[in-house]
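Hi there, hope your week has been kind to you so far. Thanks so much in advance, here it is:
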Amino acid sequence: MRILLVEDDEILSNVLWQSLTSHNYVVDVAQDGLLGWEYIQSGEYELIVMDVGLPELDGISLCQKLRSKGYSTPVLLMTAKDANQERIRGLDAGADDYLIKPLDVDELHARIRALSRRGEVIPTAVLEVEGLRLDPSSCQVSYQDKPIKLTPKEYNLLELFLRNRARVFSRSQILDRIWTFDDPPLEESVKAHIKGLRKKLKQAGVVDWIENVYGIGYRFSPKLEQSQTNQTLSSSVEQEFNQKMEQMWQQYQGLMSKRLKILNLAATEASKARLSPDLHHSAAQAAHKLAGVLGMFARETGTQLAREIETLLQTNEVLSAIQREQLIFLVDDLSNLLALEESTATTTIINQPKLLLIVNNELKNELQQLNSLREISWHQVDNLETARLWLQENCPHLVVLDLETSSDSAQNLAFITELTKRTPSVKVLVISAEDQLAQRIAIARAGASGFLVKSFTAKEIGDTVTQLLQHSRQPHYSYQENPTTQILVVDDDPIFLNAIETLLEPWGMQVTTLDQPLRFWELMQKTKPDLLILDVEMPQINGIELCQAIRNDPNWQELPVFFLTAHRDAETIQQVFAVGADDYITKPLVGVELLARITNRLERNRWLQNLSTKDTLTGLMNQPQSNRALTSLFQNNQSGCLAVVSIAENELRQINLKYGHTMGNQVLQRWSNLLQTVFRQIEVLGYYGLGEFVLGTINLNYHEMRDRTAELATSLRKQVFTAPDGERFQVEFKIAIAQYPNHGDTLQALYQFCCQ
């Protein structure tokens, strides 16, 4: 379990930290309410233990803020013995329990266990699966009554898996759950601890219960109930994808039938020995298209038959009598397998109607009168409770929420957050009778996509709804350092483009599709993709030619390029790699394989980029990258500030000598976290090395920068470190500020001014 402890008393926080970590809890410590709020926004916690009398933001106000933002994490308040009114206010603010100071540590642990049992994911204090038993109260692990000795990290890993048996955890998610901000490891550390846990479980007789989900992460899957797990615990994303693929099969039966009709016509003409070259070519193309998509709809046999038809037609310009009989036989088998109704052969392909949910008593009739919205599927409910019930079985493209439906603003914000966190996310248009800045900000933070005040006209709301629907199903991101992954897919088959978009977008990728290769360069410049997927065979210009053009442009030489092809011959594969492809995938696609290949390629690129631009210890820009960023910042603007925050001379070296480099690294990592918290929006934040951090900004003047660094200095002075031998120490530091261009017109001159 990961716990956030918010306490400004250094002695008490240290005692509680020691006690909690001794019970194998993962504990982060914040010294004031504002810092606690930053930690909550940046990590995932199962419990928050906080004092009421906190500086900056008191515990009751922090609890109110948590609940108003939709956080349901259990909160345990610590109050003074005679503070009855505070305890009442705290419980009214949303706290789950309280403890009276001076604390009884045993009572603290008992209350933590009680709060844990209330959670939806923790039905019992003892976690037990098929003889594997983990007791959080004693931190003991056993299998069939035989004890298993685990390290604290191995214990935390096993507890995480046992509490979330249905979930796949990526390495980064595991890092967020069982490592603290003061102890950030590399992702390879997760792999090492997983390996150690597996080894100890295997020695006890628990073999292969932690499985690798290819390209995604790890999942706890006991072999004794593997079949049941596979049947009942598939992820919501996979379920939704399968449902959508079946819907798409129904949607595209018309186009499938048209392609099958071409093959039937070719078989009929072949039976009469009069198959024309044009029909011969068209049939080969139709078979190629069917081979590329049928397997995606769980019709692998259809893919195999279509590929045999394509091969037969492509390798023989004129069919012999035996080959004509073979063609007739294959087409007949394919027709019987697909069992498409003839009546669907001439149907036109239309987009699925947009689905709109209205949480309001009046708007539906007003919206339905607009011509631009008459093709939309509507559903209207009167309250949030009914809306949540409906949403359990439906996935709308847009929700229109009237804030007057509920008088509880916290409920409204929580509802918006629920929708934007769904996979895929649902856009929300908020209707309000008031126009207040604070309300707008709160709604925007919750993730709403639009805001209208009730003085709008019918045309205004119609235009807004239309605009949001046109951009629906875009993944929701709020963290600046993790922008949406942009994927550009070029293929002339609309069925395939729709299918790959459906597959990738729920996994946080923004997909742009193109079925006209001649518009490629225009769209390439516009979208600036992180990864490009090309089909080999397309009319007018093929994927290999497009890849050659990309590799000839110095701006795109590093862009990852994937090829899709229905061909598996060595010549085609050699061609795609010869022109600079990074990978290729054969059609029909296997969803998990495609996701794994894309994810691994993008992570490898980010890793290489981070390796060259970031300091591995602090996670900040390294010295060369910081210099480039600062130089560009000051050259392109008329004013700005540079601040240098450094550990006192030789003090970092003395810490390394006295306590070891691990302790020195912890100091630097904690300082890095504080800098990022205090200067979250600053333009440049880097680490020069030897305990020296640099900050650059054009948005703060000298006096504003001085005030912000004074806040930082206050936080740094509160930092108390505990050495392995138990000795506690603090770190001396220096902060200097230079103003551009007053104190220097070059980066070197500004730096020299700070170091005087």
Observations:
- The longest helix spans residues 591-613.
- Residues 32 and 55 are 5 Å apart (CA to CA).
- The first strand starts at residue 2 and ends at 6.
